[in-house]
């Protein structure tokens, strides 16, 4: 009885999988039709399929309350716009909410009226206290992790990830202090981004920094597809915005305050672009001159939506595999001309030879479907699945060599 | 251009052997300097003394500022209110009852302890007895500890008030309102859970001795003449202490008293934070000490453009002189001064007695806000200055802008001493050629001959003066001296004078073979005095400055002479300079009391270092040529 049931199950399973394999093109078609129903891409030019955020508060101590509030304000925003905790790396000294000097224990506020508790009851701090180090930050970016590091502490991005990197703390000309202990230099971040690019860990990066002389921090970037903005020019301080007289310290910085004020008007379906964000920069209000660096960025700024970076609003890609999948180093052959219909015009930003061997191409399709599913459903379950796919592919790169992940092999065959 | 370069090269690198040139150049520089040594010394003295005189100038110094990021002064709402003022008034009534009932120290301390216990705090008392040459000093302190609700209590802040106010330097005015403030604060502060440090409330007995006993017991340091109870309650490391002194009915200003014993000062951040809070949160103007800025009119013959400057100078010089008075004598300007020896930053806020307008309401709010600020500290105060002179509440001189003045004097004295030392090795031998005696008075050949410089006997003289100073000091601290001070002072002065006269009996030596002892003594005396001044500048600038003024010129002009009355006369003058203080009855008593009870180094320093230096200069005059 039991055996026959097992047989039946096997039969069902095999016929189902056969059906899947047999109907791949039409399935693709169905999904493609489904997602193009609403006017497909809806105007954005981005071709990312997943969003990540790295939010760093590099300060600790009670009197740096405002830096914690800056980072938590950004955290609230990206979470509100749809990036799940699994895709947010929050590095926070986290010593203010439960500081004995805090008159409002367990809360962090960013405005003097204390309207909105940024700490709330749903905070996931990935790197806390003394874990917020330059080393950990660079390891997060480049993915060079000990095998024991849990997935929640990893930036499991791939070549189709848009990453929002926000940093705040005390800094100076081309450096940012980490917890009064060490510094990260502009060169360190630039090199880390270049490694990420070489390892295909991102599609585009939006880098934002609020610190003194912040604009110097992005001056050394040299990797493509990075859009950067900072709160103040060289030799300019960034100032705090307001002080709460019961908390007794400044609760937020000016630049971040105005950015967050703008962000509060954004929701998941907003079409505001980064150009709109940069247009609200008012040196008279911010008391410093914010800067924007877009020379490494290929898309025109007025087509780059805020939600391309701060939201979990990814594009759906349906069709033939993209040829710049992470496995392309295996067989450097010329790129086939038949690319995916929806993406081929806007994507060839990666200059490296794009190719995919035939036996992996099917996997490509599955990968795309996974992404499509995630983007389409905008739900947690799908995104987890897709992230695990992408993440495994991405994190196995090491010094330009490719280790084929056994999980991917399995899922293909 | 080339021509200029060639000319420069000709000046800088003359032809010839470069090594030889260098040696010659060096020799030329040295001889030019030694030939003008008197001028150099004169200039150093002049610049040094002028610099000292310029310290109070409004043009020198800079505005105070807060250096430590963590402090964040004056950024909080204060919740101390009229209800707390009413509480303070009730406590005050109780304390006045204690005063009128003439209650003993123990009774007072018990009642204060009970008040703390009524507030739900752990409280205790501590009895102590000091024995000194003037008799016993007894008292009982009361204290309470408010444990930090949300931390482990490894650090603490102290709020203290002594029974006797510092008004009149502890002449007996009671500090009842200060104590009432402490009690009310205990009631008020316990209702907040945001204290990151324990708060210790101390009501110390008498003026300074109570706190000395309490601090010694708290830190486990022993003092041979102190018998004090162990503290039943302890807390963490004390970082800051605020001492409240509110003797009058009301106050118009809050004065900052900050000098600690042995010339230590608290970190300036603490004073600046308090100043900021007092001004902006409390609305109470702040003074340095109790000196109001003078508004008096100057004589009309002075051009009005200078009025501001002169007024500023006279106001600041008053502050600077008061500061020097406290610091040079090593005397703390209040109870806070005892904290500094344990590396606790402390000061006294003194309510300058006036008809108004401020009272409990203002002082409570200011202390509440100041405590919020010190509560923010993450490490001991370290960022701002420890060496400074506050010339006005908002202006100060940092160490670099006053220290060189005393160092210049000391350098001038060192040059003088070295000059005397090198001169003493040579004597000009005037040799008249015998064969030309009849012809004319003319050609004599002057020859410099070298002579020996026996240092050991001179060092013996130096040592004997220091030993004499030590003996004198040990006599001063006996009860015999304190009991018969008037007679004893005269006896001791004469004893020192007469023992020194034995120098008259010193054998005279041949000038051509040995340098005279007086010359060698002067050289050593100047070099030693110069060293003492240089070293003291960093430890206690006011003391170094006073030494530079008292020793600089007198030691430099001491010289032997052949006439006995002149020798005796100048020796008497030096003795007066060195030992005249023995007739300053009050001052001497206070210095000895400070040494015995509080461990202030001023009295032994004067006896063992200052007096011998002056006596040595006197001996230079007295010794036979």
TrEMBL record, chain A:
Residues 325-372 are annotated as: Disordered. Residues 336-346 have a biased composition (Low complexity). GO terms for molecular function: GPI-anchor transamidase activity. The active site is at 170, 212 (nucleophile). One of its GO terms (biological process) is GPI anchor biosynthetic process. Belongs to the peptidase C13 family. This is Peptidase C13 family-domain-containing protein. It comes from Mycena rosella (Pink bonnet).
From TrEMBL, chain B:
PANTHER family: GLYCOSYLPHOSPHATIDYLINOSITOL ANCHOR ATTACHMENT 1 PROTEIN. GO terms for biological process: attachment of GPI anchor to protein. The chain crosses the membrane at residues 37-55, 402-421, 455-481, 487-506, 526-552, 564-583, 595-615. Keywords: Membrane, Transmembrane, Transmembrane helix. This is Gaa1-domain-containing protein. The keyword Lyase does not apply. GO terms for cellular component: GPI-anchor transamidase complex. Coiled coil: none annotated.
